[in-house]
Amino acid sequence: MTINSLPRVLMIIPQLGYGGAESSFLRLAKFLSNYYQVTIGLMTLSYGNESYTNINLDIELPIIFLDNQEKLNLIFPSKLLRWWGMLQKLKNVKSSYDLTISFLSGTNLLNALSGSTSKTIISERGSKLYHTGITRWQKFLWLRVLDPFIYRRVDKIVAASVDYMQEIIQIGGKTITSKVISIEGGIDLDNLISQINSEPDEDIAKFCNQSTAIYCGRLDNGKGIDLLLPVFSNICKIYPDARFLIIGDGPLKKTIIERCEKIGLSITTSGDPRASVFLAGYRSNPIRHFRLGNVFLMPSLHEGLCNALIEALLTGIPILSSDYRWGARSILAKESDLKNLPKEPVKKTKTVAYGTLMPLPVTPQALDIWSSEILRYLEHPPMRRNIDECYLIASKFDIDRVGLQWVKLINSLIKHQN
User: Fold this and answer.
1) Residue 31 contacts residue 403 (beta carbons within 8 Å)
2) Taking 60 as the threshold, does the pLDDT of residue 368 lie above it?
3) In what residue span(s) does the Glycosyl transferase family domain sit (predicted)?
């Protein structure tokens, strides 16, 4: 079969940043290009803040832009008209494709609104029901109006984790049950393994010369990292040598710096080893730094799955993760663990096969638990798991396995369409 005779797949996402959804999107697009003619569609090039926008990607796939923002802003500043323009362009573009896959809410809405001339799949990457970074009005609009409409219009809904499926069905109603499936993961396992022992950045290596807790992820509402700053301030009073490495960038960067300064927690953005907190910003291949830490922290309030947690698991570093909705259990717990876990997020620590589930860091009692557990891991870190064992554990999330699940789904829809 020649390249031009392969089915045509359009994959759309709002923009390409450094977040987990964007990384998963690109890995999937690259994998699917082995089976289909894949084109990437973006709303815009950047978030509007180039400091955390991945604009230097070497993408070997065709890219189209849906938003003609500059021209619209000159004449019609209305956001509604921008959306209308993107919708009309997507309708025209989709007519040339056999199937369209969208990631994230904005493009999922465009995908649903732009008609059914081709098959449509949406990928839901994170909870809105438990999202803390949107207003009550926005939550009402999405959960009661937009998401139910989207779910009725599309052919398939792919949840980022098994447990997340139940939220989607709760929002869309039982009539959409047959449309919803879960496909978990999409990491490049061999590439990550090759990076684990790569040379760390010099400033991070110097900073982590003391007992260090590590967080890696986007600095955004709901990630919970800002909630742990008072916890770490208290830890440093008891254990002055404690260090907190934050790898990542995002809109909360300024807020984190201001809060550290307000509570008297010394913070550096240049790697000063005398500081207690190092806000290291975006780093390529961050997994190479995880071996420098005593414990990996994931205090999220909500996720879809969480690629950073999978990467931490792969390195064998001890893990403390909030029992967020949804995905921590899929990554850290065995089937035998799940039978003994409560339906609701845990209120106390719960040790499972590959880490410790923690209460959401939103109450004084929960923060006290986080404080005592982080301190214990910093002072007496447990042994790390063997890398070969970690490889086997994480293999179910590898793109070579997960990608084939996408291929099977796409082929079933295209075959039905023809």
Assistant:
1) yes
2) yes
3) 208-334
DSSP strand pairing (350-352 vs 355-358): antiparallel
Contact between 242 and 275 under an 8 Å Cβ cutoff? The reply is no
Strand partners, 321: 298, 357
Distance CA 251, CA 218 (A): 9
Cα diameter, the chain: 67
Contacts by 408-411, CB closer than 8 A, 24 or more apart: 409/121, 409/156, 409/158, 409/181, 409/183, 410/7, 410/9, 410/32, 410/35, 410/36, 410/99, 410/101, 410/121
d(CA 293, CA 36): 41
pLDDT at 52 (0 to 100): 44
**Long-range CB contacts (< 8 A, 24+ apart) of 76-82?**
none
Q: Which domains does the chain have, with CATH numbers?
A: 3-186+398-417 (3.40.50.2000), 189-396 (3.40.50.2000)
Alpha-helix residue ranges (DSSP H) falling in 7-77: 20-32, 69-75
More reliable by pLDDT, 17 or 146: 146
The pair of three-digit structure tokens given for residue 348, joined into one six-digit string: 């106390």
Vertex 304, ends 302 and 308: CA angle to 5°? Answer: 90
Q: Tell me the H-state helices in 68-115.
A: 69-75, 79-94, 105-113
Q: Are strands 319-322 and 295-298 parallel, antiparallel or unpaired?
A: parallel
Structure tokens at 331: 């990554």
Burial tier of 337 (Cβ tally within 10 Å: 0-12, 13-18, 19+): middle
Dihedral (Cα; 346, 347, 352, 357), 10-degree rounding = 90
How do 277-281 and 37-42 pair as beta strands?
Answer: unpaired
Task: Say what the pLDDT of residue 415 is.
Answer: 82
Could you give the CA distance from residue 409 to residue 418 in angstroms, rounded to a whole number?
Answer: 15
Query: What does the pLDDT read at residue 69?
Result: 60
Cα–Cα distance for residue pair 207/296, rounded to 1 Å: 16
With both helix axes pointing from N to C terminus, report the angle between 364-379 and 229-238 in degrees, rounded to the nearest 10.
50
Read off the amino acid at residue 373. E
DSSP code of residue 286:
G
- Measured between its terminal Cα atoms, the distance across the chain in Å is 17
Burial category of 384 from C-beta neighbours within 10 Å (exposed 0-12, middle 13-18, buried 19 and up): middle
Say if residue 189's pLDDT is above 80: yes
Burial of 407 (0-12, 13-18, 19+ CB in 10 A): middle
